[in-house]
TrEMBL record, chains A, B:
The lineage of its organism: Archaea, Methanobacteriati, Methanobacteriota, Stenosarchaea group, Halobacteria. One of its GO terms (biological process) is glycolytic process. Homotetramer. Belongs to the glyceraldehyde-3-phosphate dehydrogenase family. It comes from Haloarcula rubra. Residues 2-140 form the Glyceraldehyde 3-phosphate dehydrogenase NAD(P) binding domain. This is Glyceraldehyde-3-phosphate dehydrogenase.
Length: 354, 354
């Protein structure tokens, strides 16, 4: 049983902890939190050992009537692997702690790539992280693009990719972020950081990205163009993508026109927090003009990296024989693909049994 | 003096009427309206003769205490040229009226291309409309793309264009349109109608477009990729575009990050309604990677076609010698380019005097 510590219990951390909890080969060693806010009460309710990460230590937790088990150092001490889900930039300053304890560590995409030995997406480069001291699970957008590019590159070859990322302004709980009624080129300069970030996973990929920000909180939406090195039919591309366990091809018959209905669908399906772990690709948007492939996909910024973090834990700890084994185990335990109807072009989804 | 009738006095019609009013060679023959709403009181206040277009004729106007001068037939009778600004699809049903009166007519981009002899953008194909019986001023988005493509095609050649149009959900007054908090691929199918519509102006252009809809009301934002037939520097492209009188290169120093500040700027500058008649291109977004040009531009959906309608009036009526003469006269009378600082790469804007 792997004891996994989660340093930070915000948007990503709480999801990773809950995902660890349902894995057959992992247990939550504990979670850290700076302040006793509503998420701390959730950690307490779940029965996770709570470690105080703020400057005032356990004082504010005592005041809030929440028991703590120690400091972040104590958390690392009881962990076989640590997943650092602190805010972007903070993770790098924690790296020394993990090194001091000789504990493998996983960082998030908000950190610079050099924080870790490898930038990680399970479908693309699981093996590169096997046995490494640290891995950086790339951002939600980079994860979404990498999952898509992996089968396209393997099957058709990618000459060049051009993506416009229409990003949600903030998460549902981030009430101080904007815009309220505007569309912002963000950043105005091209390329956005997403293209270079994808290259941390696919070093040889030719990709240009443009970022925008809009007044939604639900999901990112990518407008994707991939100039392929061959010219498959749109139907062949749909079948290829439909065979990927972390890509969901939205059948036209579902009548899902945007992120709102997508998340209503996953809430209806009983997903925890209504999370959408899969890239959601509108099946009828998959279009091939000459060798230009186009499609739209929606990415749940709070959720798609969660199964990747689980796979990264297995890769660093060398407990699983292959990427496929880990991905299938994560999917099966978490419920990736579950509750979603299959697009008619989709082959049966892989499971831990096949 | 050209007597210009405006059939319809909504978002576009009221702007076209006000633009006609300030031209030295045109006068407003009258405007039509179906109901005596707030815009009818504006027409009355401006002193435009009001013609009743609804099924109940003048009755509702009488009840509202607004004088009417007759029906749409009467309006066409007193007009040398009619600009039809009725809702999309209604214009086509009015075509017979204009033909019966042998009156040249201008339609808007919401109509099918076959409603008129020519689909029109002054910078691209003014001469094609000279002396024609009818012209269709293409939609705001198609106008914005055509103004951009014309100098690029002439100077560098266009191998292929790929554009993602992130469209405002509705205009500020369209309170029943959505989305409120979502990003919609719209249409989900690729290409959106914009690519084929641009081809009504540039028949040989290779272009794929993807449309989206977001919860803003202010402007459309285009994420543009143009694969050129040559490889200019970004600075050369900025200089080329800066010389175009209906393209505004937003200097980075202005600190304008989106449509909100753009329109605040034009309101501060004293523009009528704060209208933005120009394509607004973020100067620092202009990027060339190999022969791929990228940029972001914002398009004010209520305003950019207004100067085009004025030029179309002149083209149909054959009153002006050249496209350049008409464009300069329209710009000068309306104030296109006025109140906007020049980007350092911009050459002096053309005026009626040069």
């Amino acid at each position: 049983m792997l004891h996994v510590g989660i340093n930070g219990f915000g948007t990503i951390g709480k999801r990773v902890a809950d995902a660890v909890r349902v894995q057959p080969d992992m247990t939550v060693a504990g979670v850290s939190k700076r302040s006793p806010n509503f998420e701390a009460t959730i950690a307490d309710d779940r029965g996770y050992d709570l470690y105080a990460a703020g400057e005032d230590g356990r004082v504010p937790f005592d005041a809030a009537g929440l028991d703590t088990a120690g400091t972040v150092h104590d958390l690392v001490e009881v962990s076989d692997v640590v997943v650092d889900t602190t805010p972007g930039g903070v993770g790098a300053s924690n790296a020394e702690i993990y090194e001091d304890h000789d504990t493998p560590a996983i960082f998030q995409g908000g950190e610079d790539p050099d924080v870790a030995d490898v930038s990680f997406v399970a479908r693309a480069n699981y093996d590169a992280a096997v046995g490494a001291d640290s891995a950086r699970v790339v951002s939600c957008n980079t994860t979404g693009l990498s999952r898509l590019f992996a089968p396209l590159e393997e099957t058709y070859g990618i000459e060049k990719a051009r993506v416009t990322l229409v990003r949600r302004g903030g998460d549902p709980g981030q009430t101080s972020r904007g815009p309220i009624n505007d569309t912002l080129p963000d950043p105005v300069e091209i390329p956005s950081h997403h293209g270079p970030d994808v290259k941390t996973v696919f070093p040889d990929l030719d990709i240009d990205t443009m970022g925008m920000k809009v007044p939604t909180t639900q999901m990112h939406t990518h407008s994707v163009n991939v100039t392929l090195e061959s010219t498959p039919s749109a139907e062949a591309v749909r079948e290829l993508l439909g065979r990927e366990s972390r890509l969901f091809l939205i059948p036209e018959t579902l009548g899902i026109d945007g992120a709102g209905k997508l998340k209503e669908y996953t809430r209806d399906a009983g997903r925890p927090r209504g999370d959408v772990w899969e890239n959601c690709i509108w099946a009828e948007s998959v279009t091939v003009e000459d060798n230009d492939l186009y499609l739209f996909q929606a990415i749940h910024q709070e959720a798609d990296v969660v199964p990747e973090n689980i796979d990264a834990v297995r890769a660093l700890s060398e407990r699983t024989a292959s990427a496929r084994q880990s991905i299938d185990r994560t999917n099966d335990a978490l419920g990736v693909g579950r509750g979603l109807v299959e697009h008619e072009g989709n082959a049966p989804r892989s499971t831990a049994d096949d």
